[in-house]
From TrEMBL:
Name of the protein this chain belongs to: Transporter
Native organism: Hucho hucho (huchen)
Predominant localisation class: membrane
Family stated for the protein in its record: Belongs to the sodium:neurotransmitter symporter (SNF) (TC 2.A.22) family.
One example GO MF annotation: metal ion binding
Amino acid sequence: MEKPPLPYDDDTVVTPDSQLCSLAGEGSQEGVVEPPARDGWDSKLEYFLAQVGFSVGLGNVWRFPYLCHQNGGGAFLLLYVLLMILVGIPLFFLELAAGQSIRQGSIGVWKHISPKLSGIGYSSCVVCFFVALYYNVIIGWSLFYLGNSFQYPLPWEECPKHGNTTVEECTASSPTTYFWFRKALDITDSINETGEFNPVITCCLLAAWTIVCMGMFKGIKSSGKVMYFSSIFPYVVLLCFLIRGLMLDGAAEGIKYMFYPKLEIWGEVQVWRQAATQVFFALGLGFGSVIAYSSYNPRSNNCHRDALTVSTINFLTSVLASLVVFAVLGFRAREVAMLCVTRNLEKLSEQFSVGPLDRDLLPGFNISDPSSVPLEAYRDWFTAHGAKVPGNLTDCSLEEEMNKGVEGTGLAFIAFTEAMTLFPGSPFWSALFFLMLLNLGLSTMFGTLEGILTPLTDNFKVLKRHKTKLTVFSCIIGFLIGMLFTQRCGNYFVMMFDDYSATLPLIIVVVFECFSVSWVYSADRFLDDIEKMLHWRPPVIYKYLWKYVCLLAMLGLLGASLLRMCFKRPTYTAWNRETASEVTLDYPDWALAVLAVLIIFATLPVPLGYVHSTLRNRTRHNSSGIGTNTRGVYTKCSTVECDTPVAALLDEHLERNGIPKGPPSPLAEENLRLLPQGEGVEDIEDSTGL
């Protein structure tokens, strides 16, 4: 059931597709067919779960713990919280308030502020499409591993054998590494070697797009219901893993190692860049999905409280995921270290069997029973006497194993998967883990796709009338283009899209968003709009955060990202079959050209939108003669005799739409006076959705 139109003021009603009030008075409303009401969330909980589900994604599980571990542990957490408060929450609040106030998708919101800024919304749509292409491939991988989890033993627990010989590539690496690179991806040695399509992963990708299409079939009416499970279930799984992980030997060392603060990292620019980037992506800024979801809210909804709550939950989820990851990886590191102790004690026993050794070199523990030897006892003995004993004994360091930080697919499909094989009842934990990844991915995919569909249907009436067909068509196109990632070299393209197709364009989008609201539209005026909407005024600190802190921070992040790309040739991590190890390779020239095309294609709508609007204004001015000010600057008229006469615009709009003329409402005149001067009624209709 559709929601009724939402109140703008106490006695005025706006159409759901516009921020302008009725252009005609009460006497002219007879016989006028009202446009269909905009959909709305069935409950506040449904909306809240959707926002949390979109912002909390795979990055919280496999990127944040790695960054925290590699960049100073507790010191990185403090830096992350600081940037979240100064930059993340203000920008998140800005997007929530803009979508809820204007009740349009990203294209309509920025077009409402100024038609010259409509390109910002189109850039958001392009980036959302790029992200959706490769993100659904990761969901397909999760489906593949989920399907393989229902067998015992798990297929990645042991190396396969050809006859009586163990596969050499697996022996030289590990069973989980071999299964990921050879069985799941069947990967090539470089991005230059394309290889044929992987039929199993292609089927998994088709299944992933089918699930997304079914979830989005009726827009937020269907995806909102799915969120009750996909947003809550990952927390249940994380809590189960945390309880199980804390009972494992080595979990305390893993958690301690992660959170140990190294305050000296605050002086490194690279750490600030990574923390700002993580804040930026963790909240989903610039995608347009936050704006799209909030546009279905009642105008009286407290979006300021939502911004604080969702941001806090996002951060706490990242901390919870870090606790889980490092508790499990601490257990894995201790197991690897104890295997090292066993191998060394076997060598030591062989030395004793060959000939007598100096009694002073004898350890104080029982070398015939390696399982009873504490890791710390062995390390103390090795530090004192290891170098004096023949046999090339090695140190067995838990810290060294923990230093092998892994992120992304390496964490999810190799390191964490290997740790789960050591759990009792490993198939159960494996199925639980990959079902969690599946739901984390789906909730983010729903938001990403909504960031494409909502702006398009809001601004193109033909698409709005056929939104279901548009959803199905988008999923089909996404699957067909996404087959690029199911080739044997597909993982390299996933890394390319993940690292470069979204980062720079999204930063540019958010820079323009922040500049548009705080300087073009005016931060004071935006706070006035929020005050009218919420019936209370947000703290004035937001004005200065938007105008200076956020804008300068995003410009700094943009500059740091550009410098990094210019001075360091982009690289990727490839799997070498002969050495059974990962190697870092430079992207070939053709791949760099693809990167450049992706970035340009995603950012091009911003200048194109400005040029198109400017040329259109001049054409309208020359052809109609309406308006004398073509600068597109927002000015407030004091009388009806403006540069763009209100009465003329009203009469032209009513005549074009066959509406009987009547006295205009005062609020309608006031809204028209706030529109850019020098535009004809066609531009006003385009910018308002009338």
